[in-house]
Structure formats: structure tokens, C-alpha cells
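Allow me, if you will, to draw on your knowledge of protein folds for a short while. The matter concerns a single protein, recorded as an amino acid sequence and a row of C-alpha cells. Kindly check, if you would, that the fold set down in the C-alpha cells agrees with what the sequence suggests. You will find the record immediately after this paragraph.
***
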Amino acid sequence: MTDGVFDVRIKEYKRPDVRGGIVIDGFPSSSLVTSLVASYLVAHLKMDQVAFVESAHFPPVAFVYGGKPRYPARVYVEEELKLAAFVSEFNIPLGLSRAVANSLLDWSLKNGCEMVISTLSVPKESGDAVIYGIGSTERSREMISKAGIEQLAIGVVPGVPGVLLCEGRWNNFDVVVLLVEASEDTPLFAAAAMLLEALTKLVPRIKIDLEPLYREAKAIQDRLRSLREVAQAAERKPMYG
């Protein structure tokens, strides 16, 4: 779709059946935690890539896995679970947040999905990490309450998650943002594990074994950090040639 001067398009390899399903927003803003959550879901559930997201404002790079090029923003699906995930390793600039969020919502509605869940990490000065939930509708807030997740009473939700919440409220569409408030001493994988645990409470049909996340945490974090650094460098100058 086109949103002002920003053009964000979703191109599908195939049309999945995710009617009545849930979409995970894995577009990071400032932290790798969001990427870690979405990437772990995709790998652990062996989700299938069905589309990619492109924009002239995205980094001009191809990420290569197993000898195959991949777009820097992709869409994966696990049809049996009726679960889709948007995954990216690079930070979405704040100026692109509205266009990206609206494209994700448009795809969700077009494919008959019923809810979008976004994750976010925000800093705190000290103390243990805490999980909060924010819902766009009364239905989504009831889900958060039933899952035993504390609801954020007051605060600011920036970037794509913030736009998703506002657009969800306007369209009476269920959006939940799971927010982890963590100090700098909290390892990324620990914050991601907290968000994944909250996600499984919110959507019990999603079963996730977190042991590999703890076991392979450093390797996963290093890989994501490396990909992000490549994307940032590509925005400044060509990598090769």
C-alpha cells in the first residue's frame, strides 16, 4: 500500500489459509528482542515463507541462508496453527512505522486473520524485568486479563506497535502489544523468553520449547546483531563492487 511518500508492498509467493488466525509483528524498532521473538517462533515451529515485504526505504541488502537469498523483511505461516509472522532483522525507521503497520493490518484483514500480536522491549533503570499487555479493544483486554498478564495503565508505545494499537482501536480490530520493561543488565534472550512465555499464555495453542533459546542464546543474538550491522552499513554505502 502507499502511505504518503512511503510505499510498502507485500508480495506473496502463495496465498495461505490463516482465516481466524493470529499475526505476529516481528518488526523491531530499537531492540533485537522483537527480532529474537519472531525468529525463534519461525525456526521452532518450522514456519513456511509465503511472502516478502519491500520498500525503497528498506536497506538494499539480501540476507543469505543456506546459499539462498532472502529479502530483509519476510512473512511466514504455520497453517495448522493459523499463525503468521512478519520477520525482519533491521530497525524500522520511525517515519516508516505507519506505512509498515498499515500494510501488516491490510494483509491480516485480507487473509481473514482475527488478531495481531506485537512485542516490544523498553528500558528501565534497574530491577527485575516486567511484562505488560496493552489491548486495542475490550475483547483483547479481556484476553490479557484472563492470561494473567498485567495491563499497562499509563505509558507510551512507539513505532509499529503504537500504530497497530491505534489503528486496531479505530477499526475495532484486536491488537495486543506485549511489552517487556527490562534493565540493561537483562540479557536479550531472557527478555525474549519472557515475551514468548506471555505469548503462550495469551494463545495456549502455541506450544514453544524455550530450552533451545537458552542453550543457543549467544549464537542467535550474535547472528541477528551481525545481520543488523550489515543492513545498517548498506544504508550508508555499497558493501561490494
In short: The longest strand covers residues 115-123.
